[in-house]
Each structure stands twice: as C-alpha cells, then as structure tokens.
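Input.
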Amino acid sequence: MSIRRVGIVAKQGLVAASEHVAELGARLRERGVDAVYDRDTAALPGAAAQGTKTVTREALPRDVDLVIVLGGDGTLLAMAARIAQAQRDIPILGVNFGSLGFLTEIRIDELMPSLERVLDGTAVFDERAMLEADAYRKGQQVDSRIVLNDVVFTKAALSRMIELSVSVDGGFVTRVKADGLIIASATGSTAYNLAAGGPIVHPMVNALVMTPIAPHTLTNRPVVIPGGAGIEVEAHGSSSPDEIFVTYDGQSGYPLHESDVVKVRMSARILRLVKAPARSYFELLREKLKWGER
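Output.
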C-alpha cells in the first residue's frame, strides 16, 4: 500500500494535541508525504505550518491514503462513518489521549513508530466489520447509514418504555418492551452493549448482538445471531413522533414515527485499523476492564 497523502484529525478543541500534530507534519515532510489537515485541527495553536492543505472533515477521506486520529473512540467513530460514506478503503491510525480506547488503542509514545511502520509497509491491520442501517417510513426509504459500533433505539427522557417489533431474516422474533434496544457489531459489543449487560464478542467473530435495555420482561435477554442475518426493527406505540429515537454510533440520530422500520445488516464495507505494537485484544480487555485487579 503506497501512502502519499496522510489526513490528520484531532478531537475538536484538544489543545494538548497541538505539538503532536506539528510533529506529525514535520515527520511526514521528511518522508516526502503530504499532510492534509481538517480545518479544526489546523486551527489548534501551533499545530499546522502556514500554507498547509486543509479541508473539511467530510471531504478529508476523499483526499488521503491514511487518516491519523488523535483523541478518543468517539472521534474515530465519526471519521469511520465519513470514510464509509466516501466509499474509500483507507486505514485509520487511532491515537488515544489519556487511557487506552477500545478503538484508539495506540498510545502517544507509540505514534511515531506506528506511523513509520505504515509508511514502510510493515504495519499490521485489524479489519473490523461495519453495520449498514436503512430506515423506511410508509414503505419509502428515508435514510441510510454505515456505522462501526451500533444502532440504538431508545426512549425520550420523559417517555414510558417503548415497544419494538423485532424480526430476523423475515421471521418474527419478539415484541420488545424496554427502555431501548441495541444492535451491535462484534466491535461494538464492548461499547453501549457491554454497559447494558450484553456479551463481549471478539471482533474477529462474524456475529451481531441484540441487547434490550432495561427490559420489562426479565427473560428478554441478549441474543447473538449470525453476521449474515438481517434484522428488522419496527417502532410501535409512539403517541408522538419524538418518543422513540434511533442513534448511530452515539454520533447522530433522529426520532422515529409509529410503524417506521429500520433494517440492520452487516455492511459489505470494512474498516481497517492500524494495530498497536505487541498488544493483543485480550491485553486491551484486561487493561480497560481492570481484570485481575482487586
């Protein structure tokens, strides 16, 4: 893989990233690689040299061969969606500021060595499955998204529990009465799904997870289904159009109306993440979840 242009994105307002962004630009220039900054990142004090190329975050994936994200998992999720929307197959090198992230698992001190491996062609990549969600209203498609972690159905702040009909591959499964429902990829199993009591699924497992949030019926439990299955969720019992919300990777969403349908399946697109040096997935789990600590 030839890397000729590298996009640099920092979490909005993350002044602590400025010196690292500046160092990245200098290192890329030394290697004869063009740096392309998103405009907010270039505006950080001392981050970008005068005259450097800047574009919007939405346009960035179309202009580069690699994206470096400095921040946290939320910043990476937003960029992953933009890469999918641009229909590009470019990797992300995610650098976490603070504790390790499940996705931004590279530490600041590992940034430059990891970048060198990518430029030298010796980096190892994790390929993560993504989800595709299509929303329908009165039989007409009104929205389409590709996300990495999850599609979540929740109630409004002051509403009662919501009702959702769930089918898998055209066969009715159940009518969920709960505070919400999470449909997660294997990668997303360690996000909201985990907090709601869902199982951890290794990201290399081809599976989807359906996890109810505070279900009315205690026997309504999380279910792991084959990755090739299609899930259909229909909104019910909504007395107002803002009673049930659907959100995508916790980044964006909108209210559902009565009988709106959202169809979720595995996307044909994948996301490639630059793998952290000498750190396995289970080492990451131990560190993030504090396994073995008293």
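Residues 130-269 form a domain with the Tumour Suppressor Smad4 fold (CATH 2.60.200.30).
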